[in-house]
Amino acid sequence: MIIEKYNLPSNYYSFNPKFDLIYTKVKKEYNYGNNKYYFYFNTLSRIINNSEPLLIEEFCTNISGRPQFINDNSFFYFCNTILKLYEIQNNNYSVNYYYISEYASKSINLDYNYKYARIFDLNNNFFCLNDGNKILLLKKDNLTLTKTISNNVNNLDLLKISNNNITVFESKNQKLILNNYEILLDGLNWNLKGTKNILNEEVYSIGRSNNYFVCKTKRSCILFEIKNKV
Length: 230
Hints:
- By secondary structure, the chain is an all-beta fold.
- It has one helix spanning 44-48; strands spanning 12-14, 21-29, 34-42, 66-71, 74-79, 82-90, 98-109, 118-121, 126-130, 135-139, 145-150, 155-162, 165-172, 175-184, 189-199, 203-209, 212-217, 221-225.
- The chain has a domain at 1-109.
- It has a 4-stranded antiparallel sheet with strand order 4-5-6-7, with no helix packed on it.
């Protein structure tokens, strides 16, 4: 059920607990003649009232890339062979003014499919990146690629059950397969504990929120609920 509908002047938007909403907007750089992204942070109240976006920081990036928040204070930026991690910091003079810290950023040259890449916090030492083709472990302190876990071209998504258990959604032979892994050696060893077929249809994408996930097939969208095993 659609409660409200808003037309956002943006190419990408994502919710963030600290700012309510972040979206990017394309501007024309007349000095260079290139289209580039700028980040605008907004609040839902300003959108509802049709106010101008609250520009906390203009952040010029390559237009082909895209951002993903990893927590309230930092986000990854995916672009071509570059992966960057930025921090959002307060300037200590105003509680309502934030800026994107270039000095706190980390980056790595990486062979990955940036258009489909998603990252989650695996544990205290590693981020885990899935781009549909590979599952990669990246060290948190410098984003160094530590290990390639999988080269399966059909990894649709990963679900972190606990610090020691990961489920990988795999599209295989027009079925949706769940591969359950036990995580050992602080994340360096992924031990396959079992597989389960949950859907006899080809799944093209998966969307998740809290305890639910939606599978998009050729004919429909199917909603699943994630429950604790009793």
